[in-house]
Design a protein that fits this description.
The complex is a heterodimer of chains A (about 325) and B (about 230).
Chain A (H helix, E strand, L loop, with lengths): L28 H21 L4 H9 L1 H9 L2 E2 L9 H20 L9 H10 L4 H28 L8 H23 L4 H15 L5 H9 L6 H33 L17 H6 L23 H7 L17
Helix pairs in contact in A: 4-6, 6-7, 7-8, 7-10, 8-9
Chain B lengths: L2 H16 L2 E2 H27 L23 H9 L6 H17 L1 H4 L11 H23 L15 H9 L7 E2 L2 E2 L11 H4 L2 H10 L12 H13 L2
Classes of the chains: A mainly alpha (about 325), B mainly alpha (about 230).
The complex binds protoporphyrin IX containing FE.
The site of protoporphyrin IX containing FE (HEM) has 27 residues of chain A, from helix 4, helix 6, helix 7 and helix 10.
């Protein structure tokens, strides 16, 4: 680790990233802070008064807006880039799998004699049946791709290091469970391919030391592949494993919010010396105002208003209000 | 990381966070763009490729050559690379288990404070090599093609025979076109029609010369379809 702030002098060659505007601008701090504070007060005021509306009634009892504020106004560190969307994209595709899975389960019969016919019926006769099956099938592949990319991101960014070790461990369990989903789901259509691949997978399991044979027996529901095997795989695939995955994603995200996400490792809090807007301001050089709707640094991707432009300028106000101080605790 | 380094990290991190942006709308915006992209890819794949079904599971066809989903190819290929029987458990269970444990415990043995990828070359090179190895094994698995699929085009009247050949496990020993076992136990069948007359082909399938099993059980009709198909290969 380098010297602590603010004495750190050495400029990192790759400071910041595409998010940081080419010409960041020092904020007229007080006015920004005031604006934001005003907005916050307004929000609190609003929720307190909300007794008249149904939403307000619920809010007074569960304090949802408090949680909401804590989740939404928390900050993501400087330099956060597109690689940080891979985790939530994985979560999105998992949600898609859950939804399409529910629809598939409405038509599926987990019996060795009827499974194939029920899938054939769903594919050929049911309205949009093949499309929904396609979503579920290709969704599985996409989820595998996204989860591996997400893991690669956290690996190469060193995000598994202190204090996020536990989140890495949860993640590894999640990736294993996701593979288990692929394995158990593959059998369900009960065609030649899935049947024989599953037999092999099971034989491989059985070749494992100590627990191998028992685990294989458990999966097969007995020494031989039988009709019960299919319902066992089905129960694992649509109930047990997704339940576990859901719970672990909950724990994973709890830690993400609690610890905050990392900044890319090459981003440093201190800016390199020279051409610093701060210094320009200090020297009395007038700089472009980032506060307008046509501020150069309002990234097109997020057509946000003036507040947005200010935030986008990276060099934000001295305001550190908001529930984002957890890590220092 | 020792106590001081941890403290420094947290201090630096707090600074970075103060200089960061609010989760809403910035992170949410990026996430949403990503969602739309993922959804678009997913819908396109489902519409273009659909969800086909193979023939119904038949526990009596012991010759069917199994093939896993593509994301298990890397494990499957490991099995193929390690051939000697006494080492098979090493490939199937040993190596994957060791890798899984190493992955799980990563934060407990890689405890250095450095996070920049190019400043921790051992971790980055190892990670890079794992990525390349997995990609290569997956590619090998994909390139091998399905052992129950014959890509070589045929005329419609031989389609039936082609299906039967593809699904009867012939490709475990024989090659047809780019599919099947090149240099396998049996001869390449790609041009078998020019080398062996149809009656001899049919007899071979029914009898099973040498180590080849008999396929008499296919029944007269299917035997004829297979023979027609193979005789058409030139
Ligand atoms: C169902 C699977 C998973 C879901 C839904 C998920 C979701 C998320 C989300 C939304 C984040 C926030 C930051 C980001 O998106 O990059 C995150 C962070 C993280 N994830 Fe995952 N994840 C999953 C699997 C994994 C796996 C397989 C690993 C690694 C083995 C992992 C390790 C981590 C770590 C270490 C962080 C903290 C990263 C940081 O602070 O920069 N996750 N995860």
């Amino acid at each position: 680790m380098k010297l602590p702030l603010p004495t750190r002098k050495k400029a990192s060659p790759v400071d910041g990233n595409g998010d940081d505007p080419a010409a960041p601008v020092e904020q007229a701090g007080p006015s920004k802070a005031e604006k934001r504070a005003a907005m916050k007060t307004a929000a609190i005021h609003h929720s307190a008064e909300g007794g008249a509306t149904a939403a307000g009634w619920v809010d007074q009892r569960v304090n949802a807006s408090g949680i909401y504020t804590a989740l939404l106004t928390r900050k993501v560190p400087k330099g956060t880039n597109w690689f940080y969307t891979l985790g939530s994209a994985t979560m999105f595709i998992f949600a898609m799998q859950a939804i399409t899975g529910v629809f598939l389960s409405m038509y599926y019969t987990p019996s060795a004699t009827q499974a194939y016919a029920s899938i054939a019926h769903l594919t050929n006769d049911v309205f949009m049946g093949e499309f929904v099956r396609g979503l579920h099938k290709w969704g599985a592949s996409l989820m595998i791709i996204l989860i591996f990319l997400h893991m690669a991101r956290t690996f190469f960014f060193g995000a598994y290091k202190y204090p996020r070790e536990l989140n890495w461990v949860i993640g590894v369990v999640l990736i294993i469970l996701t593979m288990v989903m692929g394995l158990t789901g593959y059998l369900l259509p009960f065609d030649q391919r899935s049947f024989w691949a599953t037999i092999v997978a099971n034989n491989i399991t059985a070749s494992g030391p100590v627990v191998g044979p028992y685990l294989a027996d458990f999966l097969r529901a007995g020494p031989d592949f039988s009709a019960t095997t299919l319902s066992r795989f089905y129960a694992l695939h649509m109930l047990a494993v997704p339940g576990l995955i859901g719970a672990l994603i909950g724990a994973h995200l709890f830690l993400v919010v609690k610890l905050g996400t990392t900044a890319p490792p090459w981003v440093r809090a201190a800016r390199p010396k020279g051409a610093r807007p701060t210094e320009m301001v200090a020297a009395g050089v007038p700089v472009a105002v980032s506060d307008g709707p046509d501020a150069p640094d309002a990234a097109p991707a997020n057509g946000a208003g003036p507040e947005g432009a200010a935030e986008e300028a990276g060099e934000s106000t001295p305001d550190d209000a908001g529930p984002d101080g957890e890590v220092s605790a | 990381m020792n106590g001081r380094e941890k403290e420094e990290y947290l201090r630096e991190y707090e600074q970075l966070k103060k200089k960061g942006k609010a989760f809403f709308p910035y992170a949410i915006m990026k996430d949403s763009v990503m969602f739309v992209l993922v959804a678009a890819v997913l819908v396109t794949m489902s519409l273009v490729m659909g969800a086909e079904m193979g023939p119904k599971a038949d526990p009596t066809t012991t010759t069917y050559v199994p093939r896993p989903e593509w994301y298990f190819f890397f494990l499957f290929e490991l099995l193929r690379i390690i051939k000697s029987p006494e080492l098979v458990p090493v490939a199937t269970v040993g190596i994957p288990t060791i890798c899984m444990v190493l992955l799980l415990l990563l934060p407990f043995y890689d405890t250095g404070p450095e996070r920049i990828p190019w400043k921790r070359p051992i971790a980055s090179i190892t990670g890079g090599m794992v990525v390349v190895a997995m990609a290569y094994l997956t590619y090998l698995g994909a390139a091998a093609g399905s052992p129950s699929e014959i890509v070589l085009e045929t005329r419609p009247q031989y389609e039936q025979g082609r299906q039967i050949v593809a699904q009867s496990g012939c490709l475990a020993c024989h090659a047809i076109g780019e599919n099947g076992a090149h240099g396998g136990l049996g001869p390449d069948l790609t041009e078998i029609g020019t080398m062996v007359p149809r009656p001899a082909i049919k007899r071979s399938i029914a009898v099973g010369p040498g180590i080849m099993p008999s396929y008499q059980d296919l029944g007269e009709e299917k035997l004829n379809q297979v023979a027609d198909y193979l005789a058409s290969l030139d």
